[in-house]
Design brief:
Blueprint (H helix, E strand, L loop, with lengths): L2 E4 L12 E4 L35 E3 L3 E8 L3 E10 L5 E8 L10 E4 L4 E9 L4 E14 L2 E13 L3 E3 L4 E5 L6 E9 L6 E6 L5 E7 L2 H7 L3 E9 L6 E13 L3 E13 L3 E4 L4 E2 L4 E7 L5 E10 L8 E7 L4 E6 L8 E10 L7 E2 L5 E7 L6 E10 L1
Parallel strand pairs: 4-10, 12-18, 21-28
Antiparallel strand pairs: 1-24, 2-8, 3-5, 5-8, 6-7, 6-9, 9-10, 11-13, 13-16, 14-17, 15-16, 17-18, 19-22, 20-21, 22-25, 23-27, 24-25, 26-28, 27-28
């Protein structure tokens, strides 16, 4: 029976909040929802309409303004021109606004016949919204148009978009050949930007960027963008693989921004590890839970190695961080299944070890180096809280 043991007791990482502000003769419309709910309970100022004598006629040259695309955090303004094409004096009075909002700095205005006035709307896109639409309402003394609305619509988009969104999951990784990955970083806001640098600190990851062709940008309805291409080299250890890709961007001559996204994958190899409750095979992670420091805890797992043509599996080295973690592996000589070998693994925290808190973000790591060419390194993760 071959046994390799390490046990140490010395202590050893689209809601919507949007505003419309009318400056001078302007409307304030903050925090509205995209379904254009109307604020309830606001006092409405009534206009007395005189049906006798010369009548006003209100005309908005363009009541709906499509601003196209704006950047998250950007402020835009638009002038709405309101004419009086009638023969009587036109009176404009503030009224309700979309959602539970208020109007400020505008009570009323009188527009003589044949003249016009400008109302400027200012709005801020605080979050992404591909169907942004907000409106402000004004009452008039035009008997045929007692209420008018000024509306802005468009798209509120992030300055940059990395696709795929979120973590790039590459699935199962191969040991003897590289694994390619690709994606894009684009902008519907900027006419151009530069990827100054793209890199990963992981030694097995190589990555580069190339500007998109004008044809591809036009096809995707983008203003600027880069293709991201990379690969994970062969030799990935058994278990979960994670790496960060870092992008350094420059735009608008002086502005810079650093963006990071994650890639991950999993290499099963020729082994299968089965464990008790708390074992997560895909991540090669054991959650020991909450244990008393003076009692410690040890669990047993079974590792099955198939089609081994390289002789008995031997452990060359075990590294544990923190090194209060214990680990041992013993071959089961009584296991006789064809083309498979069984190894009994015991890992845990010995009694009276130093207190430790290893969670999802900072699990303990046990790195096992073996003599097997495809299992040169096997990495186990451990979560535990001792008290």
């Amino acid at each position: 029976m071959n046994t390799f043991t390490k046990s140490l007791s010395v202590p050893f990482r689209h809601p919507l909040g949007l505003g419309l502000m009318l400056l001078g003769l302007m409307l304030l419309v903050p925090g509205c929802q995209d379904n254009l709910k109307v604020a309830e309970g606001e006092a409405k100022r009534e206009i007395k309409i005189n049906q006798e004598g010369p009548q006003p006629k209100v005309v908005i040259e363009k009541p709906v303004h499509d601003f196209g695309t704006m950047e998250v955090g950007q402020t835009l303004r638009h002038d709405f021109v309101i004419r009086n094409d009638g023969e009587g004096e036109l009176v404009l009075v503030k009224d309700r606004s979309t959602c539970k909002c208020t109007m400020a700095d505008f009570e009323e205005r009188e527009v003589p016949p044949g003249e016009s006035t400008i109302i400027t709307l200012e709005w801020v896109g605080k979050v992404q919204d591909d169907k942004f639409s907000q409106a402000a309402y004004i009452k008039t003394n035009d008997a045929e148009n007692k209420e008018i609305s000024l509306t802005v619509t468009g798209i509120v988009d992030a300055t940059f978009e990395i696709l795929p969104v979120g973590v790039w999951n590459l699935g199962e990784l191969k040991f003897d050949e590289s694994t390619p990955f690709s994606g894009t970083i684009t902008s519907t806001i900027l006419d151009q930007f530069e990827v100054v640098d793209v890199s990963s600190v992981h030694p097995l990851v190589k990555v580069s960027c190339e500007k998109m062709s004008p044809e591809k940008l036009a096809q995707e309805e983008l203003k600027s963008g880069y293709d991201i291409r990379g690969e994970i080299s062969s030799g990935i250890p058994i278990g979960q693989f994670e790496a960060s890709i870092n992008l350094k961007l420059k735009y608008r001559e002086t502005e810079e921004q650093d963006l990071t996204f994650q890639i991950n994958g999993y290499r099963a190899g020729s082994i299968q590890v089965i464990g008790p409750a708390g074992w997560q095979a895909r991540e090669m992670k054991m959650n020991l839970g909450r244990i008393r420091r003076d009692e410690g805890r040890e669990v047993q797992l079974s590792m099955f190695l198939r089609d081994n043509m390289n002789g008995p599996l031997e452990i060359k080295e075990i590294k544990a961080d923190p090194d209060i973690l214990s680990f041992s592996m013993t071959r089961d000589e009584n296991f006789t299944a064809e083309n498979r070998e069984r190894y009994v693994i015991k890992l845990g925290v010995p009694p009276n070890a130093a207190s430790v808190a290893l969670g999802e973000a900072n699990p303990g790591i046990i790195e096992v180096t073996t003599n097997h060419p495809e299992l040169s390194k096997i990495i186990f993760k451990v979560q535990v809280l001792t008290y």
